[in-house]
Amino acid sequence: MLGTLEVMSAVDRLAIATWARQVDGRIIDAGCGPGHWTDYLRDLGTGIVGVDIVPAFIESARSRFPDTTFKLGELNSLPAESASLGGILAWYSVIHLSPTLLPATFQEFARCLAPGGKLLLGFFEGHRVEEFDHAVATAYFWSVDEMTRLLADAGFEVTEVQTRIDPGARPHAAIAAQRAHGPSRRVQPNRRP
To answer: Which whole-number Å values give the CA distances from 184 to 6, 112, 155, in the listed order?
Structure first.
């Protein structure tokens, strides 16, 4: 449960570092969990803040990585002014969101990113949207096509897609996208009762 870079794929480390070097401006690690990716990017010299909804994750991340900034917050209400961010890392952080909540979350990402701002999204790839039992909570497989459509609906332009299947692991997908230069379209977020 407490992520460490040593057990993360070298392919993922390279992809995230390469993406971060292309970001101009402040980054939020949205759904930072235990904080290892946030700290990794801080070590690379980025201005980054880790945000997560789980108080225990934030407390643990602050303890493990005292030189890195972490804040309690929700994906659909990030602690950032409109158009203020250069990048958002959402590495396996949207996998637990209900499909009904994901469009509003992508709209929030678009709100926070400056035009041309960059998003890197990691998720479990499947042929369709399908839920499955995960160690933490129910998670979802998403097809690259469906994820790309949702991102386009939120005002993103997909710039790169990577997929792979590692031995003994679920299929992986990563999508790099940037916020379109036009105005961000805003939809009403779905609220839980």
So the answer is: 38, 10, 6
CATH 3.40.50.150 holds for 8-171 = yes
Closest CA to 119 of 72, 173, 159, 153: 159
Domain ranges of the chain: 8-171
Contacts within 8 Å (CB) and 24+ apart, 50-54:
51/75, 51/78, 51/79
Note whether 139 and 102 are within 8 A (CB): no
Characterise 13 by phi-psi region: left (phi > 0), alpha (psi -120 to 50), beta (else): alpha
Q: How far apart are CA 88 and CA 79, in angstroms?
A: 12
> Which 8-state DSSP code applies to residue 45?
T
DSSP state of 33: T
Q: Pairing mode, if any, of strands 139-141 and 85-91? A: unpaired
DSSP state at residue 81: -
Whole-model pTM: value is: 0.88
27, 48 Cβ separation under 8 angstroms: yes
Q: For residues 122 and 8, what is the distance between their CA atoms, to the nearest angstrom? A: 13
Q: What is the pLDDT of residues 149-187, one digit of tens each?
A: 999 999 999 999 999 888 877 889 999 999 987 654 443
d(CA 75, CA 112): 11
